[in-house]
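Methods — Computational structure assignment.
A single polypeptide chain was analysed. Its primary sequence is given first, followed by the predicted tertiary structure written as structure tokens.
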Amino acid sequence: MFESARAEEIRGLQDRIRGMQRTRLDERALPTSESLAELLPGGALAAGGSYVVEGSTALALELLREPSRAGSWCAVVGMPDLGVEAAAAAGLELERLVLVPHPAEQWFAVVAALVDAVAVVLVRPPARARVGEAAAGRLAARLRQRGAVLVSTRDWPRAHARLEVSESDWAGLGAGFGHLAARQVTVASRSPAWQGRSRSRRLWLPDARGLVSPVQARSAEGAGVPLRAVAGGL
């Protein structure tokens, strides 16, 4: 009975979103953060693509920000620690955001159903979950058919690109006293499209304004702000 009720709830949600969706889901690429464009094949989120982001929820949410601001619906599955305040702070439009914090063992079915309704699905699979090639292939076909994008915080077969955060350093103002103002990270990206090569970029994640931005672009602006490392990465 629970599964039947959940399926009916998802179908109703699909119908509502389709009627309210302002942007088409069959475009070749979705709006993409300028900070992350050079870390993605083609410089953008490819409609029908799947991506892995490891080591940072903030980085994963950055992939959703521009599609959300452009009018697309987004969904977050399996992340009970992400509330509406954090989503809003990340730049997501709450009126076009679906949160499914506790999908339990039905998480893959929930993701598959949401792919039919929203532009971008961010999922944190259960720690012990393993997505097989066959299941990933079926979902990939669904993504291509709908022009949607999947972002996973854990390993996913056939990913278009895998982004990983490393070399994370927090910085504080003046003498510090424990006040954390911004964080610099190195984001490395690997993709089959690059034939074994990888790319990396140094980013503020976040900067002093709470946004994601390239370190190089803010170097002149932040030259007068005394920052110092006060802790290791998260």
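Note: The radius of gyration is 18 Å.
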